[in-house]
Amino acid sequence: MSPMAIATTTSNLTAQGIASSVDKTAHSLVTESSSSNGVSNGNSTKAADAITNGAPKIVSNGTATPLPELSAARLNIALTSNPRTVPAAGSPEIASQKVCTDHMIQARWTVSHGWDAPSLQAYGPLSIMPTASVLHYATECFEGMKLYRGYDGKLRLFRPNLNCNRMLMSTNRIALPAFNPEELLKLIVKLCATDGAKWLPKDQPGAFLYIRPTMIATDSALGVQRPKEALLYVIMTMFPAMDTSSTLGGMKLLASKDDMVRAWPGGFGYAKVGANYGPSLVAQGEARAQGFDQILWLFGEKCNVTEAGASNFFVVWKTKEGKTQLITAPLGDKIILDGVTRRSVLELARTRLEKDGELEVVERKFDMFELEEAYVEGRLVECFVSGTAFFIAPISLINFRGKELNVDMKEGDMGTYTKTIKTWLRNIMWGKEQHEWGYVVEEKA
Which enzyme type, at the first EC level (predicted)? Predict the structure, then answer.
């Protein structure tokens, strides 16, 4: 049976299952942020669906008591006695993406006892059984965030509430327990405040750490079933900048072929689950062996453009009527991720460029044949990708069915609009512009 057929027959069951999952886990409340055009985001669990009216309870002597929720107020702190060494800037250790900070957050959940008190403890290995659900059934989801050392000396997160809300949506999609996103944010902030000063010293502004909140099913029952145990953990790691011209020189993309599908309507492409990434690595490896940086994922007979690797994809082109458009794939089919950087690009473009009549911001399906036609007719202005890892990275070339589309780099290493939007975001992230999206972390002295 094709992925399309599966989606058609099970989409209602999946929606019902997600609603039931929320209703059966500990009480959690998430306020869904509206999308940039004022319409509720179709990819995320709505606030009303995330409120449990019948949370699990412990019954003792005829009295029902709600199970404990995830709570940062119950955090146990045990600082490491063996602090780790901070690698030098630009060192191979940072490039390896394996060096983590001194501490991590952990919190265990079981269906019978709810959430245990979380802990801030020394970074180290996890202990799970060989039969753990995550190892066999991909019951895992995660988030990608960054902690920035601003040029004003402050530590900042960038719109972290969106990451925490999205992680709740992902846990619901993968049959993992619900939680209050605000409590997750408090735990992340505590970890940042504890390790930030050492690992992002004030004399190195412009640096960052990569934050990886993760939830895995640790249930040791081997049967295919909804997990009854889970582990939430948060780590921070050193990460190289992946958006510089010296690293990229403009990304080169290889458009996927008819036998390659990353995500499909009714699937889970919109959730940040591990199962979205592992199956794409073979194609990605083949693309790199041919001299490309990432796969540009297309979908269906019309070759609709979706994502580039694990990043959202943007095009600036001129319409046949001469109007300049910033265009990206829509969220409605739940094929692409509702990226935090994507959402921010759209909101900035709408408020700072579209408002002034410089361009039109469009979220709609578009295909490679449209893109190729714009290129041939000289209407293709520039392309870029957005995401936490690659930030804003320009595209210099797209290979589609053996044809090469060379994209202009009017600013030397990127397009004009790419550079403008990237500068706006960078200024917010590193404190050069005071903005509500910059979440200041009060660090320890």
Answer: transferase
